Amino acid sequence: MKMIPHSAAASASRSGFMRRALAASVALGLAGALFAAAPAHAASLDSLVKAVKFDDDRAVSKDLAGGMDPNATDEQGMPLLVLAAREKSDKVAALLVANPKTNIEAEDRAGENAMMLAALNGDIDLVKLLISKDAEVNKKGWAPLHYAASNGNDDIVQLLLDNSAYVDAGSPNGTTPLMMAARGNHVTTVKILLDNGADLNVKNQIGLNALDFAKHYRAPDVIKGLSARMGVPADAGAAAPQNGAK
């Protein structure tokens, strides 16, 4: 058997060691770079989230041009567009909606999207903008119409209905927009919904209709109006309240 000279073996051993050492150094260097980059990225995201909250469209535009994801989320898992809708940051919202990479249907952890929060906040300009981009009006479960009706935002209620929103949309527990409007004593909202075909007799999963909601939440004006429509005494008791009525 041919023997490898000691010097050659030592050289080969050193060579192997050097390769392993070099590989380890490269790996450590990459790991260091990654760990060093993480705080910078986190800081950039924090800065972007702050810019969204303050409706600083210039800062947001700069961050997006620098490679930040328009679908990034804050620490609570809220997408930037949903955050903009919540804060009524309309300039930033318009910027995000115009970005082809933005998912305009993105939801937060509670299942709320930008149109729902815009409808809740009475931000009709953002609702119009989202509709113009074909955002879903009839979201499964809680829908934008529920949110608009709950705050008595009549202009948005009418806008959604004009764009084929289902007037008797049922939430996961069967609550309709009419029930939400009744709960808040929003008389004009109730009238708009009824004029557009809302069913007074629909009940949710625990057997409450819109009049029951009005009575349970002590909405006197709606109680009077709905009682007259249904031909029942305004002082008739509501169905027994249960947890699901809330």
UniProtKB/TrEMBL annotation:
Ranges: ANK repeats: 110-142, 140-172, 173-205
Signal peptide range: 1-42
Pfam families: Ank_2 (PF12796), Ank_5 (PF13857)
Database matches in PROSITE patterns: ANK_REP_REGION, ANK_REPEAT, TAT
InterPro entries, per database record: Ankyrin_rpt (IPR002110), Ankyrin_rpt-contain_sf (IPR036770), TAT_signal (IPR006311)
Alphabetical UniProt keywords: ANK repeat, Repeat, Signal
SMART domains reported in the protein's UniProt record: ANK
Protein name according to UniProt: Uncharacterized protein
Origin organism lineage: Bacteria, Pseudomonadati, Pseudomonadota, Betaproteobacteria, Burkholderiales
